[in-house]
Fold each of these.
Amino acid sequence: MTPERFAKIQRVLAARQPTLTVLMDEVNKPHNFSAILRTCDAVGVLRAHAVAPRGGQVPTFNATSGSAEKWVEVEQHASATQAVQALQQRGFQVLATHLSETSVDYRVPDYTKPTCVLLGAEKWGVSDEAARAADHNIIIPMFGMVQSLNVSVAAATILFEAQRQRLLAGMYQQPQLPRADYDKLSFEWAYPDLAPLYRERGEAYPALNEQGDFVAKL
Ligand code: SAM
């Protein structure tokens, strides 16, 4: 662990936005799933959410990701509607990317609030049920011959609007992560091989100094 590498980890964790996330509902193509996670990493999403495609598994680990999976945890849910409700209970507004009578332009919502963007499957989009359970439906206006964007392109468009609003609000200047989570992730990202050993032994992670050095207990 070089001091430069540790400084980068600290910078990235200081910019993480635990109150911004996505819910990928049955996104089944690995390159789309990985591209969305890569955008999540770029805008500071701490943890993404996913519902596995029917009869399949959440499609991670694609070469296009630039290893974003290492930096953005994915929490799985049994169904989109259950996930929407669980996230609302945690205080998130859920914005479903869905064309309905009440849909608004994706730039209208206030993304400085705890926000989850619900993205639909490539073939059938967001289900009507999940869209109804969401707080708002949003849409990226389309003026071309084709009706929809690729899901990872739509995700990037919306997440960078969230980033724009949060930058203006100064939310990348003040660490948003609670101190305990910040310290825990600093150790796990800096020492990915050691962290599981500490967990297996039920031992607390050691404190790190500014260079990322610590007094090993193992
Ligand atoms: N046939 C599907 C439908 O009718 O919804 C098209 C799904 S589209 C290829 C896959 C996903 O990309 C959508 O569920 C949505 O999450 C996102 N998406 C694509 N175009 C969008 C747009 N113009 N506005 C908002 N989200 C969009």
Note: The pocket of S-adenosylmethionine is lined by residues 97, 119-120, 122, 124-126, 139-140, 142, 148-149, 151, 154 (CB under 6 Å).
Amino acid sequence: MSDRYKSMIQNPIGQFLVKNLGLPNPPELRRYQGGALVDGPVLIGGEGLLTGALPGLLKASGIDATSVRADGRRYQGLVLDASGIDSAAGTVAIQEFFTPVLRSLANNAKVVVIGLLPERTDSIGAAIAQRGLEGFVRSLAKEIGANGSTANLVYVTPESKDAIGSTLGFLLSPKSAFVDGQVVRLGTTDLVEADSPADPAKPLTGKVALVTGASRGLGAAMARTLHRDGATIIGLDVPPLAEDLEHLMAELGGSSIICDITEQDAPEKIASSLGDGVDFVVHNAGITRDKRLKNMKSENWAKVVDISVGAPERITAHLLDHKLIRPGGRVIGISSIAGIAGNNGQTNYGTAKAGVIGFVQALAPKTAEAGITVNAIAPGFIETDMVKTMPLGIREAGRRLSSLSQGGQPVDVAEAIAWYCHPGSSAISGNVVRVCGQGFLGA
Ligand code: NAD
């Protein structure tokens, strides 16, 4: 759905009112349109696990980086390897790297800080400094959001550090336009090897993706984006949306499964439509049935929880038991900021979406041996049919109360799914990344 406020303030009168009344002024966010991942200079600095390796890792994603500052340059990306900082006093190196260049940030610039997983540090001083990076990144993101810029943190371990390439490519590019103030953890399971795609422009070539709820909204965007990256799509949706789904799958050269995922025989039905298996399973289907708890009906509680997490749990178990998710595979759940921060009138949905986090974090270590990662995306306010049912006041608050003062687009969530699916992302498992423009709810 469209953001009328954002369109209204684009003219000179709108901009005059915004300035004089102190109204929110959402920046224009640049999305990926193909071609190079980053189209401006990237400055790198710091000392730590990636010292010396960063330029090569970035080059592999087609990103040229320099550690030499030049006057008058506007940086599209800043990357600080802060993983070597091991004391509270040492954190001043963060300030010394960023302060002199922050006035030289281009619009829609991307800041990435690299740290060492705090639980892998070997002194209290290092734990202070490394955990401190989270507070730094989340605060900087709030300072630079007004021009569409974002800041994110990537924790690595000595074993997983070389698998950071796909994550840097994603976080430094416009593919991550609505990912802000987030923390990505690499190497929390034994899976640490990253593969390089034969064709970087189509990294998912030869892979098969099952996307549930694929006929519209976020699911349709996921199907399109995974297809753009080379995957063959199997879309799934309920019988009333069969025509929409089949239309989209015909456009993408994919196939359809028409079924309600909560039906008892859904796991078998899905398994029998997958041939010799799939690489990616994206459990996107979801519904809301909002009511305050005092007015909640049992059937609306049960339905919301079963669609979001009960059915995904049963379907995943069945596909894993029958070895229908291939090595190198990905299982992805869709959570929500309502599952992180809670939401008035959404006790059922909040339970379901927090349950998705429990699901991916419990499953991730179990599938590591089979080479399968399990992660979740928690969307914030994204412009789809689902948010049309919100009362206007809540809808406007959802849009404006974020560092980027606007809702996201379905493609923003889809790009994050494609990043999880990238062959280079095998060291990311058990993660929950919000695609929310650093929404202030539960941030
Ligand atoms: P949507 O209503 O536009 O699409 C949901 C899709 O899931 C529909 O195609 C629907 O038919 C399908 N579906 C529902 N129940 C199903 C079932 N039993 N079996 C098979 N398919 C079923 O919603 P959306 O906004 O695209 O949301 C997609 C996912 O993202 C959901 O899980 C939702 O909870 C989550 N989410 C959305 C937002 C947002 O702002 N739009 C925010 C947070 C989380």
Note: Residues 212-213, 215-219, 237-238, 241, 260-262, 284-287, 307-308, 334, 336, 379, 381-382, 384-387 surround nicotinamide-adenine-dinucleotide (CB under 6 Å).
